[in-house]
Amino acid sequence: MMTREMIISELTNRGYNATAQDSTKNGVVLEGIIIRTEGSAIAPVIYTEQLISRAEEEGKSLDDVVSRIIDTYEAHKDTTFNIAELTDRDFVLSHIRIGLQKASNEDLIKGASELEGIESYLYIGGEMGEDGYSIKVSASYLENASVSESEAWEQARKNTFADTQIESMAKVMSELMGVPYDEEMESEMPMYIITNRKKMKGASAICDRKHLAEFTEQHHTKKLLVLPSSVHEMIIIPYTDDMDIEMFSDMVSQVNASEVAPEERLTDRAYVLEF
Q1: DSSP three-state, residue 155
Q2: Which Pfam families does the protein's record reference (predicted)?
Q3: Rounded Cα distance, 102 and 136, in Å
Q4: CA atoms within 13 A of residue 174's CA, in its CB half-sphere
Q5: 3-state DSSP call for residue 222?
Q6: What is the pTM of this model?
Q7: Taking the CB of residue 33, how many other CB atoms lie within 10 A of it?
Q8: How far apart are CA 128 and CA 44, in angstroms?
Q9: Helix (H) or strand (E) holding 167
Q10: pLDDT tens by residue, 30-70
């Protein structure tokens, strides 16, 4: 069986400065490696568990996996990033966002989210390579950037909610399947996806009361059924009194177990928000 240690050993044999690096995402510890580049203060984490699992499914060898990691590293090693920006006050205020995750014991600046079992937190997000980066914010981080906690939350709400998107699921599915959209698709149960423009860590858009209040007014309701899809998005449905919340909670649980990566899951239940 292939292991992370075997990958690190082979990378070292090929002349790369590779070390193990564990990361915690949404309460899930992920095994990874980093390859240090001379003169660079930061290095992206390459997560190995999924690489190993895929390699075993496809019958790939250790050499194949290591070569793929090297190709990824070589393609992005020259990406420039000014690490001093990370504690620059103006940079922090322009890049700070709100994320959602399962309730945790992480030492972060966190807040309530109105959804039991889910907490909000602050992170710095930006562009770097193909996937960008995100750094969770602690009290000491803000102190180093001379930003108060209240100021951070206020600006994070502005930055986060400026990107809120609410899209009809029927319309999204029509585009994915390449079929014409018809409003009758929504007649039985109108479902909507709430996220951000990049659809990354977009579940926090559910905290955007202004956009949600506008949505509920348009749909002539005072309540929304909320289904946590992942840390990236949620599903909202105009609430009616005949809805079976337990049934929807079971649906969320089943989708989580079969479709959502552990590090991207929120809770196994549905919620009702009132406006």
Answers
A1: helix
A2: DUF5688
A3: 14
A4: 13
A5: coil
A6: 0.80
A7: 22
A8: 9
A9: strand 164-168
A10: 899 988 877 655 677 888 898 898 888 899 999 999 998 88
